[in-house]
Amino acid sequence: MDTKTFFQSHVFKGILIGLGVLAILFAGFTAGQVVGWRRGDFSDRWAKNYERNFGRSRVGFLGGMMGRPGPGFMYGNGVVGPILKIDGNNLTVKDRDNTEKVVVITSQTTIVSPVGTIVKMDLKVSNNIVVIGSPNISGQVEAKFIRVLP
Fold first, then answer.
1. Residue 73 in contact with residue 88, Cβ under 8 Å?
2. Which of 112, 108, 106 is closest to 130 using CA atoms?
3. Are 80 and 95 in contact (CB under 8 A)?
4. What backbone phi and psi angles, to 5 degrees, belong to 4?
5. pLDDT, greater one: 65 or 26
6. pLDDT tens for residues 69-117?
7. d(CA 125, CA 147)
8. Cα separation, 34 vs 11, whole angstroms
9. CATH number of 76-148
């Protein structure tokens, strides 16, 4: 069998399809590892910065287990809940799981309410908000988009 015949054969096409399937599986597993690493990294940074962000001890909340978070990971890319405190560009928000998270408002943050786009000064304590952002090195959420719920 010469090379031209081999490259046109069903065996060669089967090998190419098999390599393609392996490449897709590898890409999927790699994406899962990256997402898991980012969530774990955020959870670790959040736990290390708990006292600085909230000014109280981790004992009780995290069970005092060597500074590691309890069951489940912290969600680093978003927050949903009422605003508890407004301090300059930082909002303290009570999340769905009853944890307090610090949300940082930057110049690129878009804030939208039912009446349209608003500015940071229009936010009030007890407003229910949805935040989409990304975790920063201090374990806070840097807001890219904030929606004020009615």
1. no
2. 112
3. yes
4. -65, -45
5. 26
6. 444 445 557 899 999 999 999 999 998 888 899 999 999 999 999 999 9
7. 14
8. 35
9. 2.40.50.320
